[in-house]
Amino acid sequence: MRQGETAPKGAWIGNASGGVKAPEPIILPDPGLRFSRTAERLEQLADGHAAEGWLAFMAEVSRAQAAAARPSTPRVPDQAAIAQAVAARIPPIAADGHRRDAVWRDGLAVLLESFDTMMFPPSAATAIADLRRRDALEKESLADAFLRGGVDAADAGVVFWIAAALQVYFTRLAATLPAADLRLLERRDLCPCCGSTSSASVVTVTGQTPGARYLHCSLCSTAWNHTRAVCIVCGGSRTLSLRGVEGDSGLARAETCDECRTYAKVFYEAKDPGVDAYADDLATLGLDMMVGEAGWSRHAPHPLLLVG
User: Fold this and answer.
1) CA angle 59-62-66, nearest 5°?
2) Residue 159: closest CA among 277, 38, 305
3) pTM here?
4) Distance CA 225, CA 299 (A)
5) How far apart (Å, rounded) are the C-alpha atoms in residues 136 and 290?
6) Model confidence over 133-180: pLDDT tens digits?
7) N or C: which end of the chain has fewer CB within 10 A?
8) Three-state DSSP class for 252?
9) Domain coordinates of the chain in residue numbers?
10) Which of 42, 169, 201 is nearest to 103 (CA)?
């Protein structure tokens, strides 16, 4: 994987002089690369795509997020609290319980300032203007509502930008965690840093363990190893199938489970080394529609699609 800092190198399986390495369990994000890489990939995928305008809009959002990710990082969490959470198998920066540093609102301001509203429909500018009129208390309340899954439909337009800013904040925060001390959670479908669900998974072709599968957190951009051919929702394997759009490149597949009737997207780096879990997830919504119409439910929503 080509994403930021990494956890300690995996131990050798077998003799000490050589053999197959265990996959790195957790890969922390590089905020300076995460959003700019997604923006570049979205711009590439938008060209000639049926949803070209929308993907171009999402690319500009990612560009604005990249600008917001450049300022100074949030205050480093208390190390003793991190150790206590890790020992208890609790996410050290749990999305629904973490006490946010006010710096996230500074990132929101940079994001809104960086987004070029002149390129897109007036609705984007209207939502941004509405959000700018909100005071700090209202913004914090909207952030709480998003992180706890209680967004009012009337606030969806402004919460889209809140969600984008929180992705930046939690990604920057995750990057400050002590990688060597982190552990996977008992629920392997949840991010070991913030406890959020994944956007999608990528099967690698590069790095020390080609063929390893990594889930990519929808909030803090952490990647963590997950067993292949196992449902990430219920842990079953008997009724798993890989489904794709007939005649496509094979880059994207929906891993469907008949035991819990859910599916999760899997991308294969061998089919395209430039694959990005976040950009390619947005560009393959046709696969979501196809599998959804056949009766499976997505394992978790994309946070920006949830409110956008």
Assistant:
1) 140
2) 305
3) 0.90
4) 17
5) 41
6) 999 999 999 999 999 888 888 888 899 999 999 999 999 999 999 988
7) C
8) strand
9) 31-174, 184-307
10) 169
Question: Closest Cα to residue 306, out of 120, 200, 187, 150?
Answer: 150
CB count within 10 Å of CB 240 equals 16
Distance in angstroms (rounded) separating the CA atoms of residues 88 and 82: 10
User: Cβ(193)–Cβ(222) under 8 Å?
Assistant: yes
Are β-strands 262-268 and 198-203 bridged in parallel, bridged antiparallel, or unpaired?
A: parallel
CATH number of 31-174: 3.90.1670.10
Angle, nearest 10°, between helix axes 136-147 and 103-114? Answer: 90
Looking at the DSSP assignment, which residues form a beta bridge with residue 144? none
Burial class (CB in 10 A: 0-12, 13-18, 19+), 285: middle
Q: Which residues pair with 27 in a beta bridge?
A: 6, 223
CATH architecture of 184-307: Alpha-Beta Complex (3.90)
Structural contact between residues 282 and 42, judged by C-beta atoms closer than 8 angstroms: yes
Distance, in Å, from the CA atom of 61 to the CA atom of 164, rounded to the nearest integer, reads 8
pLDDT > 70: percent of the chain: 91
DSSP string, 198-238: EEEEEE-SSSSSTT-EEEEETTT--EEE--TTS-TTT---T
Domains 31-174 and 184-307 share a fold: yes
Predicted confidence at residue 306, as pLDDT, reads 64
